[in-house]
Amino acid sequence: MTSLYGRTVFAAAFAALTVSAMPFSAANAGDMRVAFGDLPGIESIQTLAAIERTKERGVNVELIVLNDEDLATQAIVGGQADVGIGAPYTLIQKVGVPIRIFAQISTQRFFPVVNSEFYKTWKDLDGQDVAVQARGSGTEAVMTLMAKNNGIKLGTISYVPGSEVRRNALIQGTLKASIVDAANRRALEAEAPGKFIVLPVENVSASDETVFATADYLKNNAADVDILVEELMKTGREITENPAIAVEFRNKYKLLPDLGAGADAEITEYYKETADAGSLALNGGGAEAAADDFAFFTAAGQIEGDPVSLKVGDFWDVAAIDRAVAKLGKK
């Protein structure tokens, strides 16, 4: 693997050690420790900008970067972080972790990719190995559901955190079938034209990233939570209206400096595509988003039950969304 992969693995190990070593003390009022269950990339600029703007409004946010949603959830449950970023439906229902989603950031835009030398259709993946982000992630759910819809059974599912890491592995040939986000799909098309095929994904509008916390934290830190939710909504609305503003956010807050200035054009194109797809949550999600998530994650087998009968309150706390929409208006 490339040196990027090595750095990523090291970062993951360091993050895991950092979390395990963190004290189990609660954050003070005005403090917010955010556990990011992925490796930040182009697709994270909206979230990172919202966090910076939350800081500007007086909330002392500490960002803890983890490359696994499970670790982010464990950090919340263990009291080592206050707010997690991910989509923890499986853990809420099947493990019973005492957390609630309080806003949606974005919906899924994942792209199953195969090396065209070996595979060309979903049927070709019958019995074949694939790689996804993490156990219980949206990437795993998409692959599982599409396999089910196409009447095949996947082989071994490997967990390889980081869409960019999976893209590099596809380029190098160490992975032949995986799933990436829109930014890395575009990079694959540019770096190796014709080498990869993007398999079709139908009717998926479930959550990609949400923010979640314990009920106690949401109750005891409502003012801080409201500021974060408002800034997530505002950045989502501003980028959807003008995708080029994502570059302004990046430059203003010095986000993802390792990418260099050459990434600005790619960032604009990525967010234009994202805006056109309506992927950023303009009103925080809530009951409507939960209904889409219930349909998707039950079909994928990651949560159980009749999606119509599942209760929003068992997974979500929509109070902060309601307050933000009342203040900002509905889009």
From TrEMBL:
<feature type="signal peptide">
    <location>
        <begin position="1"/>
        <end position="21"/>
    </location>
</feature>
<dbReference type="Pfam" id="PF09084">
    <property type="entry name" value="NMT1"/>
</dbReference>
<protein>
    <submittedName>
        <fullName>NitT/TauT family transport system substrate-binding protein</fullName>
    </submittedName>
</protein>
<comment type="similarity">
    <text>Belongs to the bacterial solute-binding protein SsuA/TauA family.</text>
</comment>
<keyword id="KW-0732">Signal</keyword>
<dbReference type="InterPro" id="IPR015168">
    <property type="entry name" value="SsuA/THI5"/>
</dbReference>
<dbReference type="GO" id="GO:0042597">
    <property type="term" value="C:periplasmic space"/>
</dbReference>
<feature type="domain" description="SsuA/THI5-like">
    <location>
        <begin position="55"/>
        <end position="244"/>
    </location>
</feature>
